[in-house]
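Lab notebook, page 48
Experiment: co-folding of the full assembly
Goal: obtain a model of how the components sit together before planning crosslinking
Operator: M.T.
Materials (sequences as entered):
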Amino acid sequence: MSALPYADTKPLTYRVNLADPPGLKAYEAQDGYAALRKAAKEQPGEVTKAVKDANLRGRGGAGFPTGVKWGLVPMGPDAPKQKYMVCNADEMEPGTFKDRLLMEGLPHQLVEAMIVSGYAVQATRGYIFLRGEYVLAAERLNKAIAEAAAAGYLGKNILGSGWDFELFVHTGAGRYICGEETALINSLEGRRANPRAKPPFPQIAGLWGKPTVVNNVETLCNVPHIVLRGGAWFQGLSQGKSKDSGTKLYGVSGRAKKTGCWELPFGTSAREILEEHAGGMKDGLKLKCWLPGGASTDFLMPQHLDLAMDFDTIARAGSRMGTGLLTVVDDKQNIVSVVRNLEEFFARESCGWCTPCRDGLPWTEKLLYALEQGKGRPGDIETLEQLTRFLGPGKTFCAHAPGAMEPLQSALKYFRAEFEAGIAKAPAQVAA
Amino acid sequence: MSETVIKLSDLPPAAPFVLHADDRAAMEHETHHYEDPRAATIEALKIVQHRHGWVPDGAVAAIGQVLGIPASDVEGVATFYNLIFRRPVGRHVIKLCDSVSCFLTGYDELKQAFIDKLGIELGQTTADGRFTLLPICCLGACDKGPVLMIGNDTHCDVAPEHIGPLLEQYQ
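Observation: model returned without errors.
Model output:
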């Protein structure tokens, strides 16, 4: 095991306390707001450069380089006066429970992260877009914001930098699609959460047409640590397990022995996560397949367990790392039922804006339901395969439907016989 | 089965909606958090819902007036988001997570136990107005499934045998 101090192996979670999260004084006593004090003495561009040097990639699922995203924001005297820093705290990807931990257990870390990141792009206001069901997180974040404002970390001329910044918690009212960054912006503006066309990208024209950066909770929480300790330190956190840097909140849900969420070096193998940290499957159950990072990622098989959980490795195996929290499916489950459950979710959560998604997902769900009941008709599986193409990347307005197709296409690839078993045998039932 | 015809004129008139002064003030306060008052729409709907349990028709127009936007826009938002109720609900809304991790750990059995115990299906309210039963997407506590919320409280690792004592806490 590593001899590094706890703060240097688990920077995001070493101060987390779910029962009683550190208040301002306790947080300050453990390096809290030290990154902001350092950043406020630097040029905003230095913060962005540090994030670029660290090779921080988005932890919301897409893995986009954070520094590159920030680099697109107009800076300097000709930039628009209003700019926005938005935190995507709409954690709703089925199987994902990491941002809740960071917000409930250490709200000041996210508040500091928002301020430091806001400073980097010279934002004037920040919003934490929090899902409405996270009642405790809302309460704790609001308390942390009030404490930070009273201490002069928010408001006018923060720490003598000449920069003003306000921060608000905006709670949502449901709908998975709010996690899509342009849908989130529409929702924040008080509209239906339909996605927007890109370009223009939010960094140029986002919230109320102003430059806007949207980053995930876990992504942002890394920023103060990078500012304080530097890009080389951050790259070293993955301990050579991956070319991706930092730590990652990995987790396991499903019927494993000790389900939970752990901060581990980026690129830790799925086997270590499942077998060492989650204690393996429950007694009497075997692993059938697993989703590497949420409902919208392709299933992987037991033979993929030794792969490093990083963006490129999991992509090469035909899936996506997504949010990095494993959902394990045991051998007692019928894959058709599991996929039906997933597609029911996606069909219900489609915003209805574009036709392939609005019509294709309920159709998918209907076909799967029939197959689950043993009432499928010859040709249904081929129709499902066709749907995975018609609803795939590039065919729809946003990534919702393509994401929905990932578990379906991989289930068809690995477990075709289980789908075939759902085709009704009696010819009488075939006649329409 | 005989057909009953209900004429609109036979129905009792809907009570006119009066926006509470405190609620109006709270909505106006919310608008200061944004560049455009429209952004307070969801919060305004929540303010009404907090007082009334749901969002009555009259509130939609009233919110539109406070925020300076058409009532149709408010209705568009109200009907989009699943945590805004445009129909009356019970005193306690049970939100049962039906996403994949809870599905794998016993959602079907738990759902059936609620249906049997309350005598209602998903989307319905008990005759005494005490409970409404709704499905909800992933509640972000997947390691402790099955998960549900009753009102603002999250309950984890819920088994069918727990629901009797659990529901007793909500009168």
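Interpretation: Residues 59 and 219 of chain A are 5 Å apart (CA to CA).
Next step: discuss with group before ordering constructs.
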